[in-house]
TrEMBL record:
<dbReference type="Pfam" id="PF03775">
    <property type="entry name" value="MinC_C"/>
</dbReference>
<dbReference type="InterPro" id="IPR005526">
    <property type="entry name" value="Septum_form_inhib_MinC_C"/>
</dbReference>
<dbReference type="InterPro" id="IPR007874">
    <property type="entry name" value="MinC_N"/>
</dbReference>
<keyword id="KW-0131">Cell cycle</keyword>
<dbReference type="GO" id="GO:0000902">
    <property type="term" value="P:cell morphogenesis"/>
</dbReference>
<feature type="domain" description="Septum formation inhibitor MinC N-terminal">
    <location>
        <begin position="8"/>
        <end position="73"/>
    </location>
</feature>
<comment type="function">
    <text>Cell division inhibitor that blocks the formation of polar Z ring septums. Rapidly oscillates between the poles of the cell to destabilize FtsZ filaments that have formed before they mature into polar Z rings. Prevents FtsZ polymerization.</text>
</comment>
<dbReference type="InterPro" id="IPR036145">
    <property type="entry name" value="MinC_C_sf"/>
</dbReference>
<dbReference type="GO" id="GO:0000917">
    <property type="term" value="P:division septum assembly"/>
</dbReference>
<keyword id="KW-0717">Septation</keyword>
<dbReference type="Pfam" id="PF05209">
    <property type="entry name" value="MinC_N"/>
</dbReference>
<comment type="subunit">
    <text>Interacts with MinD and FtsZ.</text>
</comment>
<dbReference type="InterPro" id="IPR013033">
    <property type="entry name" value="MinC"/>
</dbReference>
<dbReference type="GO" id="GO:1901891">
    <property type="term" value="P:regulation of cell septum assembly"/>
</dbReference>
<comment type="similarity">
    <text>Belongs to the MinC family.</text>
</comment>
<feature type="domain" description="Septum formation inhibitor MinC C-terminal">
    <location>
        <begin position="106"/>
        <end position="207"/>
    </location>
</feature>
<protein>
    <recommendedName>
        <fullName>Probable septum site-determining protein MinC</fullName>
    </recommendedName>
</protein>
Length: 213
């Protein structure tokens, strides 16, 4: 049996999360591992917006059963959207695109100190971003872990871009040309909720990420 990490993945889009289930997983394995993975980050996923299940090994009835189960047990909202294009290019990086939207680069590992990642689109990190690492995107930046490095979203002047993380503790945040430096106290690290940073009235504002989109 494949590990939990290999069986279930979550891909973030502007319309919500897409659940990607490994092609070799059957219904029972997928259901069990999906429950385990959501329970491990219940505060983040409960009440969140989802838009699809991508699983070529499951039939439509099995997918619908999973959707109904998630709605009932976790108050998860499903809003079916046009199917995306998912291109797997390597074991650690995936690129995701929808018609008319910016492409998204998925990085399936922790970004280590000294690493530099720049992308013309959105960046989603399925791991942590360590101090000394730097992310630059002309779209949004989402970190499904702890953000401790430098993040620059909307790098080509898009002030509507945002940066979000399960734990937001960056050395520096930049959105378009607006910059925020990490405070000397533990303002970021003391917060146990996912957070989102965006520009409002010319300043970067940080708020707890809403559980419902």
């Amino acid at each position: 049996m494949k590990s939990l990490k290999d069986t279930i993945e979550f891909k973030g889009t502007k319309d919500g999360f897409i659940i990607v289930i490994n092609n070799e997983a059957d219904y029972e394995e997928a259901r069990k591992n999906l429950i385990d993975k959501i329970n491990s980050n219940l505060f983040f996923f409960k009440g969140s917006q989802f838009c699809d299940i991508y699983a070529t090994n499951l039939n439509e009835k099995e997918k619908l059963d999973l959707i109904n189960f998630l709605k009932e047990k976790y108050n998860i909202n499903f809003s079916k959207k046009e199917k995306p294009i998912i291109n797997k290019l390597s074991s650690d990086t995936m690129y995701y695109n929808t018609n008319g939207e910016k492409p998204t680069k998925f990085i399936k590992n922790t970004i280590r100190s000294g690493a530099f990642v720049e992308y013309e689109g959105n960046i989603v990190v399925l791991g942590d971003v360590n101090p000394g690492a730097q992310l630059i995107a002309d779209g949004n930046i989402v970190v499904m872990g702890v953000l401790r490095g430098i993040a620059h979203a909307g790098s080509k002047g898009d002030e509507s871009a945002f940066v979000s993380a399960i734990k937001l503790n960056p050395i520096q945040l930049r959105i378009s040309s607006v910059i925020a430096i990490s405070p000397d106290d533990d303002t970021y690290s003391s917060n146990s909720l996912p957070q989102i940073a965006f520009v409002h009235d010319g300043h970067i504002v940080i708020e707890n990420y809403p559980t419902k989109i």
